[in-house]
Design goal:
Blueprint: E1 27-29, E2 35-38, H1 48-60, E3 67-70, H2 74-79, H3 93-96, H4 99-121, E4 128-131, E5 134-137, E6 143-145, H5 146-153, H6 182-187, E7 203-208, E8 215-220, H7 222-225, E9 230-236, E10 240-245, H8 248-256, E11 259-263, H9 268-272
Parallel strand pairs: 2-3
Antiparallel strand pairs: 1-2, 4-5, 5-6, 7-10, 8-11, 9-10
Helix pairs in contact: 1-4, 4-5
Length: 278
């Protein structure tokens, strides 16, 4: 495995989950040339997962057909001095605010792989080129694959100067490709927060006043309180109500059964006239 560790993180070789040494925190390369791109953003249907993988793969010069992804956890991020940076996701900002250092991750990994191959051949790295997960020594025509030199690359010092490609040279970024998250969503392998289950864990569903600045005036929860799985029905501040139950489905179903009366306040007139607020 190969992982990228730029621009932050401590020194030393880190073992990936399956025991293969990392070179950096963003990319993992297995001996069979499978490339795993670490994604530190949530995929919510906006295409960020595939887009970020394209950016890393572009600079890495790897075989796109062998690219897959995985999510590091926030706990791992904290333990490794926030090597993956901010985990926040906000639509397109998942790409707009991280594309530079994510691309540098792929570029740094490529440079280290090329250097590892050059060291093995005892030739200058400048005489070697990388494309489609293959490194070629131009004068002699010798070749090797990323998977074969990843272990050696893991022992190298990460480069400090990491130039990026000119957009005119892009072959993967911005191109239409099959999304990498589709199969996991179709098969149910993709795990969402609603799928997490811990011992004794309860779930809540909340409903806030639909009018900005409005309040919760009253509610009748008799029917909802008797529904399956419901543990408690509570006010949340001045403007919301929540149902706590053993599953989210039970909580949300019960919430919809509550008769709620809202006090729209000063902005109620704006809503009646379809204005955002007064």
């Amino acid at each position: 495995m190969l992982g990228l560790n730029i621009p932050f993180g401590g020194a030393g070789i880190v073992q990936a989950a399956e025991g293969t040494p990392e070179v950096n925190a963003w990319v993992v390369i297995r001996p069979d040339d499978t490339v795993i791109v670490r994604i530190a953003r949530s995929e919510m249907g906006q295409g960020t997962l595939t887009g970020l993988a394209q950016m890393v793969a572009e600079e890495l010069e790897c075989d796109w057909s062998k690219v897959t992804t995985e999510y590091p956890t926030p706990g791992q991020n904290v333990a490794r001095k926030r090597v993956w940076g901010d985990f926040g996701t906000g639509g397109s900002r998942g790409i707009r605010t991280s594309h530079d250092y994510v691309r540098k991750g792929g570029a740094a990994a490529r440079m280290m792989l090329v250097q590892a191959a050059a060291n093995e051949w005892k030739v200058p790295a400048a005489e070697c080129v990388a494309a489609n997960s293959v490194i070629t020594h131009k004068p002699s025509g010798r070749t090797t694959t990323y998977g074969k030199v990843a272990d050696a690359a893991a022992k190298l010092e990460p480069p400090k100067d990491v130039p990026l490609k000119d957009p005119k040279e892009w072959k993967i970024i911005g191109k239409p490709v099959k999304r990498l998250d589709t199969v996991d969503k179709l098969t149910g392998k993709q795990i969402y927060s609603v799928d997490l289950k811990l011992p004794g864990m309860l779930n809540a569903s909340i409903k806030d006043c639909p009018i900005f600045g409005g309040k919760l005036k009253s509610f009748n929860s008799a029917k909802a309180a008797a529904m399956p799985g419901v543990k408690k029905i509570v006010r949340v501040g001045d403007s919301a109500i929540a149902v706590v139950a053993d599953t989210w489905w039970h909580a949300n179903t019960a919430l919809e059964a509550i008769a709620v009366e809202w006090d729209g306040g000063a902005n109620a007139r704006c809503r009646a006239h379809r204005l955002p607020r007064c």
